[in-house]
Design goal:
This protein has a domain of 142 residues. Helix 1 packs parallel to helix 6, helix 5 runs antiparallel to helix 6 and helix 9 packs antiparallel against helix 10. It contains eleven helices and eight strands. Helices cover 55% and strands 13% of the residues. The protein has 277 residues and is an alpha+beta fold. A hairpin with a 2-residue loop joins strand 7 and strand 8.
Length: 277
């Protein structure tokens, strides 16, 4: 777990080096996305079968610029690709020669398995898988699951302070690339959803999840990210309402929920200062 967490934190630093500004928006332009969903798109097939281990985003932008078109990634890092199926699509590019097709395929490194270097979601996934095994009835190792939540909290705390670019890449005022990659909300769900779903009767894990979300919330002033965290808090409250029968345990969870919701409403700077003192 510690190794996977260290590798994932290093990947966060590499992939998302910029700090998130208070006014940054994680959202995307749905109107633009809808308009670009219409044909004519020309699909470029993948030449290999396997997992996308990495790709050269700058090279994709350069190809789109050269062709004076819009390139839509059909697969991102971590996705499984089948040879002969669409790898990328180009918006009305005209004729496409074999050299350009080969060049587009060369942008992608496709291998036998996922790797963490450009795939933060995979690092998170490895830790979640350990938690799933720990929470299984045959093992029932709450201590290990709690440790998993702690490491996931560390990863998500770093991520919540970082800017994650929206999928639309613009060059000199023209849209050139529609990328594929996880949003903050995707990564937050990857980290905590399955653990919550498998901890319906486990008070210790539900409390730890709330504590993790409280820590994460205290590190960001982004209204959108705080709203996403609030959704996860509400989901845990719903899970506890359904699964926890003991009045004492329900009171403990209710008190923790109050603290977490207060943190979501508090000024993040003062909350961080209070937590550190």
């Amino acid at each position: 777990m510690a190794t996977a967490a260290q590798e994932t934190l290093a990947a966060v630093d590499q992939l998302f080096p910029e700090a998130l500004g208070e006014d940054d928006d994680d959202g995307t332009d749905d109107t633009l996305a809808s308009a670009l969903a219409r044909p004519p798109w020309l699909a470029v097939p993948a030449s290999k079968t396997g997992y996308v281990e990495s790709l050269d985003a700058d090279a994709l932008l350069d190809i789109a610029r050269t062709l004076e078109t819009v390139l839509r990634m059909e697969h991102g890092v971590g996705d499984f690709v089948v040879a002969g199926t669409p790898l990328v699509s180009l918006l009305d590019p005209g004729d496409l020669d074999e050299a350009t097709t080969a060049r587009l395929n060369a942008v992608y490194v496709i291998g036998r398995q996922r790797t963490v270097e450009q795939d933060v979601a995979f690092g998170i996934r490895q830790i979640v898988d350990v938690a799933m095994k720990a929470l299984s009835p045959g093992i029932n190792d709450t201590t290990t699951a709690v440790m998993c939540v702690d490491y996931l909290a560390a990863i998500m705390t770093k991520l919540t302070t970082r800017r994650i670019a929206n999928p639309y890449r613009v060059d000199q005022g023209a849209l050139r690339v529609i990328a594929r990659g996880p949003s903050f909300g995707d990564l937050l769900g990857e980290a905590f959803d399955q653990i919550r779903q498998n901890a319906e009767y486990n008070v210790a894990i539900l409390l730890r999840l709330l504590g993790a979300l409280q820590t994460i919330a205290g590190q960001t002033a982004s209204s959108n990210r705080r709203w996403l965290i609030q959704q996860k808090v509400d989901e845990i409250a719903e899970t506890a309402e359904r699964g926890i029968a003991s009045p004492h345990d329900r009171d403990r969870l209710a008190n923790r929920l109050i603290r977490v919701r207060e943190a979501l409403l508090a000024d993040p700077v003062s909350f961080v200062r209070t937590n550190h003192n």
